[in-house]
Specification:
By secondary structure, the protein is mostly helical. It has one domain (about 5-50). About 85% of the residues lie in helices and about 0% in strands. The longest helix is centred in the middle third of the chain and has 33 residues, at about 20-50. The protein is rod-shaped, with a radius of gyration of 18 Å.
Length: about 55
């Protein structure tokens, strides 16, 4: 990941210091990470539900 882009986005100065593509890539990566976490959570909930019905 581009550290420059991350620092720039955190400081709120995206236009001044990072290219738009770096910002977009950062957010796309974050979205992918969140999707994986959500899918893990859903499968964990499903497992929990299965155990309760036994």
């Amino acid at each position: 990941m581009h550290n420059k882009a991350i620092e720039t986005i955190k400081s709120g100065q995206v236009q001044l210091r990072a290219s738009p593509q770096e910002g977009i890539n950062y957010y796309l990566t974050k979205i992918e990470e969140l999707k994986l976490e959500i899918l893990e959570f859903i499968s964990w909930c499903t497992e929990l539900e299965k155990r309760q019905h036994k």
